[in-house]
Amino acid sequence: MNFKTALYQMIGSRIKIARISAKMSQEDLASKVGLARTSVSNIEIGRQQVTLSILYEISKALETDIYPLLPTYNDVNVSVINSSDPIEILKTKDVTEEFKQQIKDFFKDIDSNKL
Question: Is residue 79 one of the residues assigned to a domain?
Answer without folding.
Answer: no
